[in-house]
Specification:
Elements: H1 51-61, E1 66-69, E2 79-81, E3 84-85, E4 99-102, E5 111-112, E6 130-136, H2 148-161, E7 162-171, H3 175-188, E8 191-197, E9 208-213
Helix pairs in contact: 2-3
Length: 215
């Protein structure tokens, strides 16, 4: 299983700090529907943003619209196993000025959905209007590495949502997954693909991530 850390949600992988003999029972994913999370209150930020309100907020504040896939306001409330709790955003962001997307309700995302279904969803209104899309340690079903088909669907959606010269960031500490993601980025149409290192003060300082540009 790839060794990956991040905001703990259905998209994320197991943390680097787990003991090698940790056993994650598959049945833990068949859990009942949880109660709505207790949202963290962030000043001057609605919970959640609607897509129109978020775009208007960015336009009125001079901010560049950014979508974060795989996080939310309370990722620490998501449990990936009976004995393993989540943590706050591993990149150290409070997402005050971000639009967040996740399939885990406990993470309290702005958009409770899978990015591959953005057509016909409220997110479609942001087509060709986002400056940056961040994939924050996203994974596949049952905490496994995402399939190439799913990554292709994610990056194709991102390509449609980004403005020209908009950028995509893919955080994943597994070198094999990074290589696959880089290949798919090129196939989808991204260029200027390069690796960068996460800077301080996050716990992941030094970890590489991929950055690419929509021409």
């Amino acid at each position: 299983m790839p060794s990956i850390t991040g905001c703990f949600h259905a998209y994320s992988m197991l943390p680097l700090s787990l003991p090698t003999n940790t056993i994650i029972p598959i049945h833990c994913w068949r859990r009942p529907t949880p109660a709505p999370p207790q949202l963290r209150i962030i000043e001057n930020r609605p919970t959640p943003w609607s897509v129109p309100d978020y775009l208007q907020h960015c336009a009125g504040s001079g901010l560049l619209p950014r979508l974060v896939v795989g996080c939310g306001l309370t990722p620490e409330l998501v449990r990936i196993a009976d004995s393993i709790s989540g943590i706050p955003c591993s990149l150290g962001h409070d997402h005050r000025h971000d639009l967040t997307l996740n399939i885990e309700r406990e993470a309290a995302p702005d958009l409770l959905m899978d990015l591959v279904t953005f057509r016909g969803s409220p997110l479609y209104e942001a087509r060709n209007r986002l400056d940056t899309i961040v994939f924050e340690f996203v994974g596949g079903e049952r905490n496994q590495a995402p399939s190439e088909q799913r990554v292709t669907a994610w990056f194709s959606a991102a390509f449609e949502l980004l403005v020209n010269n908009g950028q995509i960031e893919f955080y994943n500490s597994n070198t094999r997954d990074q290589a696959i993601a880089e290949s798919i980025m090129r196939k989808v149409g991204f260029d200027q693909i390069r690796r960068r290192r996460i800077g301080a003060p996050t716990v992941l300082a030094g970890t590489t991530f991929l950055l690419a540009i929509k021409p």
